[in-house]
Design goal:
The complex is a heterodimer. In chain A, about 10% of the residues lie in helices and about 15% in strands. By secondary structure, chain A is of the alpha+beta class. Chain B has an 8-stranded mixed sheet, sandwiched between helices. In chain B, helix 2 crosses helix 8 and helix 4 runs parallel beside helix 6. The chains are: A alpha+beta, B alpha/beta. At the A-B interface, helix 1 and helix 2 of A face helix 1, helix 2 and helix 10 of B.
Chain lengths: ~100, ~325
């Protein structure tokens, strides 16, 4: 998790650039949309063929490649929509309900 | 292998997905709904555009979710403009760059200029600015995210809403079947301007979308791309069906994928057999109230429009579904 700007709660309109210009590209990365989810995908590594289809269909994108070539979710951004599980070629992704 | 559908391009996707570029220009942390097909489309269009581009974006879902002050999801230089003047602003940017290059202030090659808008910002409110910019022949690309209603203000009908769809301003009831008019053919309007490149695309066919956007960016002169983006919130469908519904729209003939290069039509994804249109309507709650007469009407109209398109493309006819299949209506099956 990279910190780009001040926390949202501490930012006021006085610190805005003139015209509302945002100077840091991609600064929305610090916002944790992953807090919304009620389920998350789990990969069964023995059935994964590392094709990368789950990575192409993720709208966030919240699926990252691990060093071994397998894919896994980024817990900070995954909203739990389930598209990756639906589109997985071998059916190796299952959606698991989120625990407390 | 019914799961992958009929189209050959999907089999290609399975093996070559890893070869697509890894840089993200529409970053994580945007506030779109779960399973947003439009965010997926934006992600792939931005990758296809590449690093050197300036984007003008109309008001709409993607502007709301991606640029909540003081954060932004965009890596490109990006400006938010009003509904009415997206194409006009893009035209101004393009002309300004040209003048700066002529005076020697910035080096060639010039960055690509892209305008983006929703279906309301394109086919309803921004149509006159778009028409003017296409007619003047500016070197820019216009991308329309078509989710078939004004979704971010609470699902009001637009001219792009299909026949029979439920929205909050076209509610079904005793004296109404939902949206009473047919979808406006925005692609045909763009083709009528005589511009060099027009295409339809869908994020369910990632490679098709990617190469069409590349082509549009490299075309000198105006280009228009119409992207069908599934909206689980407004279409009342399950969040995990977003990619599947985009594929069904192509396989049923509701949203055929084609491109028009200098007025010549070409079908880029050709399903050998069309599915009955009910396969596409059934998972969507916005068509839940439809009964057999309306479903048959939609089926007939879809096939008629598809035949007209095939004649323009001079493509071989696929196997059409049987028109009078009486076995199911949406109410029974769901």
């Amino acid at each position: 998790m990279i910190k780009y700007t001040k926390p949202l709660e501490e930012t006021t309109w006085r610190e805005m650039e003139t015209g509302g210009v945002l100077t840091i590209p991609g600064s929305a990365r610090e916002y944790r949309v992953g807090d919304w989810r009620s389920q998350h995908p789990v990969w069964t590594k023995s059935r994964c063929i590392r094709c990368g289809v789950c990575w192409t269909v993720c709208p966030e994108p919240a699926i990252v490649e691990e060093p071994g070539g397998y894919f896994d979710m980024d817990p900070n951004y995954c909203k739990g929509c389930g598209i990756c599980a639906r589109e997985c070629v071998t059916g190796c992704i299952t959606m698991v309900p989120e625990e407390e | 292998m019914d799961k992958f559908g009929f189209a050959q391009s999907q089999k290609f996707d399975t093996y070559a997905s890893r070869l697509l570029p890894r840089e993200e220009y529409f970053t994580s942390g945007h506030r779109s709904c779960q399973g947003c097909g439009e965010a997926l489309a934006v992600r792939w269009v931005c990758k296809a555009i590449g690093k050197d581009a300036i984007i003008a974006h109309a008001t709409g879902c993607m502007e709301i979710v991606s640029s909540g002050m003081p954060q932004t999801s965009w890596m490109h230089p990006w400006i938010h403009v009003a509904f009415e003047n997206t194409a006009a602003v893009a035209a101004g940017i393009e002309t300004g760059l040209k003048i700066l290059a002529r005076k020697g202030k910035i080096p060639e090659p010039l960055p690509a200029v892209v305008a983006m808008g929703g279906d309301g910002g394109t086919s309803d409110i921004g149509l006159q600015a778009l028409s003017g910019a296409l007619e003047r022949g500016h070197n820019f690309t216009y991308v329309c995210w078509d989710n078939e209603a004004y979704m971010n203000t609470g699902i009001q009908r637009s001219s792009s809403t299909p026949y029979g769809a439920m929205t909050t301003t076209s509610p079904p009831g005793k004296r109404s079947i939902g949206q009473a008019t047919w979808k406006k053919n925005m692609v045909a309007i763009a083709v009528a301007h005589g511009i060099p490149y027009v295409a339809t695309a869908s994020p369910s066919y990632v490679f098709d979308l990617y190469f069409k956007v590349r082509k549009a960016i490299e075309t000198p002169g105006p280009a228009y791309i119409h992207v069908l983006s599934v909206c689980p919130t407004g279409w009342r469908s399950a969040t995990d069906l977003s990619v599947r519904l985009g594929r069904l729209a192509v396989e049923t003939g509701v949203f055929p994928l084609y491109e028009v290069v200098n007025g010549r039509y070409r079908l880029t994804v050709q399903p050998p057999k069309l599915r009955p249109v009910i396969d596409y309507l059934k998972p969507q709650g916005r068509f839940r109230h439809l009964r057999k007469p309306e479903l048959d009407l939609i089926q007939r109209q879809t096939l008629a429009a598809y035949e007209l398109l095939l004649a323009k493309c001079q493509a071989p006819y696929p196997e059409f579904p049987v028109l009078s299949h009486e076995e199911e209506t949406i109410a029974e099956g769901a």
